[in-house]
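Help!! Second protein's tokens look totally different from the first
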Amino acid sequence: MNYTLNSALTEQANNNNGQKQAKAKEIFLGIDAHLKSNQVARKIDNSAIGAVQNLGFEELLLFAQKQLRVAEKVYAVYEAGPLGFVLYRRLKDLGIEAYLSAPECLEQGRRKFNKLDARKLCSRLYSYVQGDRQMMRVVRVPSEQEEQSRARSRQYDQLVDQRRAISAQGRSLTLSQGFSSMAHGWWRAEPFQQWRRVLPDWLKSQLEVLRPSLELLDQQIRERKKELIQSYDQALPKGFGAQTMVQMDREIGDWNRFGNRRKVACFFGFVPREYSTGSTQRLGSITKVGSGRLRAKSIELVWRLPRFQPNYGPILQWGQSLCSSNKVLKKKAAVAVARRVVIDLWRMRTGRKTPQELGLVINPERRQKLAQPILATTAMLSH
């Protein structure tokens, strides 16, 4: 009898050890990432979400690596933000299926704190992996090369914004003293020489402090603009602009990421608000949920098209409204044309259609510039 009891206990102990050694199928990590600490919520298979842990960056990576030993598959998610993609890439290097979620308000009732955010992210990640694709808006993570190219493109816009802000300081100074507002470029040699004749000494000394910064920004903007334009080596439709196309391409990264035209329009924010019920459908203004940079670039591009692409389909349809004196109608028309333009750009970038098939005229000057190096190389090889 004792032998039978001991055998039963031994068998039970072996079973318990086997259960401890068995790997979980999936582990889900919801991470509320911050600079100094990270709140991590963990869910194992179908169990409840465990207690939230507070970990530093290296501690988080060590904790994530340990999860790979106890589960066949580990998933992790955190919200996109100022911390960039470093954590995402480190998790990927460890072999974890990492996701980057678009930032959203995770408030529950009137309660919002880091631990609650981590738990909500973990819950959404679980539902997303199980097939509910509406639970998270996943952000595409660019490669390191794409991120560096995009940063250089964005720096151009940042330099322009800085110049505009400093220039506005000078204009506000003169305006506050009863002088007419100075035009853009007042800090350059010839315009400033004219202002020196009428401004009091104390005001001139104030403006002299701003001028070196503005002149340096002028130089940096010219250099960055030249770099952007020269980096584009393809023939362009007239009016589209090499700089605009380079910046749009670097913001998007890969045009093939969009499966259809609706996704393109959505990414640019050209989707109408909607409040519909039953047979009633109400559409409003655009949501602007998307890239503001890309939307601004596409609107700028639209205002050039009536001059350079007068026979382009959307311009023929909305051209009269674009030239209207009604400002509201002009804005609506610009948005409508911009939506068509970005969809056509997607078609061209993905090889679905050529510019000629879309009714666009190629810039002959740029085509000749692109052909010159080829002809020169051919001539050198022939000699």
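Here's the second one for comparison:
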Amino acid sequence: MWYNGIAKNHIKPHKERLFYMNHYTRLAWRLKREIFNFSKKICTGLKRPEEKLISNLLYGIAESGSCHLSKIGRALKEPILLKKTIERLSRGLRDFTMDDQQKLLDNYTQKIQKNIDNRTVYVIDLSEMTKPYSEKLEGLALVRDGSTGELEKGYWTFEVAALTAGTKTPLPVYDRVYSAVEDSFISEGDEVLRGLRYVSHTFGRQGIRALDRGFDALTYYEYFLKARELFIIRAKKNRDVRFKSETKNILEVANLFKGKYRIDFKDKKGNPISCKIAVIPVSLPKHPNVPLHLIAVYGFGKEPMLLMTNLQRDDKRLANTIVKVYLMRWRIEEYFRFKKQQYALEDFRVRSLNAIRTLHRVVTLLTGLIGLLSDQRNESVFVMELIEISKRIYRPKKGKANRKFLHYAIGDAFFFILRRCSVGISSFLKRPQLDSQLSFFPVA
């Protein structure tokens, strides 16, 4: 039960402040241990200097709430000149190889395998990081800023996040920063397919892939059909489909129906929404013998929302499942917003493209750690304490905790606890000194 961050009746309200003043050292040690253990697992196979770099970056970003190397260096509280710490971090980011970046991602995805099952929803997203005033960054290219719609200098990012079945917590499973002007770049489609293949190779065919209108292209339909993976793609209004042996515009087909099923739900603000749904058997003009379903959702605006899927069911649960799965996208959008805002991801201060990719990967992994903790919201007293320390205005209530996006709460708790520490994470990184004084045999 939710009460002051821990199980009910563990502490009294009037002793809450004294409790945290006396026990923040314990929480800080536990939090450092969580970061260190997580770092050690995802760094399996890396050399000692790279492992130390990742641990320092994870801790420094978590405490400072920033991607600035100067702020990360201050958070580490090392007994050397800050300039030397910044130089070491900068050099480590620049020299961190692509193979080591891949090992980090592979180790992380192996760790979260237990959180993935057939009910998992993978949300695929193409975004950008803009640097409009930069001149010296490697590989700067023009990207379209999603918030303004204007062309700006920056980098494209392709990411895949998984919604866990129980708490609907977003967990990152793939990320890549790329530039359209680098020599190895082929096309946007090639970058997307690379990420989709990685997800298929790592997690198999389990779960459902959910994609927005930007991925309504024959290339992606053919990929999912060939791989026999379940997908939901929001279709554009100009798409043609085969309906009753004729090729017609998808919107014209949807307007032939009014909706057989009804679904009531609440949006992320708690406002009630009622809409009607029609399930229409269609196919693609190039693949007329491959059965698909067009899900037309009426009630979101003047024109229906159109979803294409290869889910095959013969009852009304098909419509409810598809719409609910797609409408979970708002949590993923909140996840991407958290990643950019909480750690000022677009305000990085490194120049080489490899350093940018490494820094982006570390922030992604830190967000994954927060997601793993958030997924334990109903099981771990430690996570409940973190949420209480963050001092949310609206605390999660019993029975409604799973609806909350708790990344901001846990991220703030990281900052509030770690900033009070007089030392960083260096004590966890030191190798224990073996004492041979009481040993009968010399220690090698």
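Reply: Different proteins will give different token patterns, so don't panic. The chain has two domains: 1-95+380-444, 102-332.
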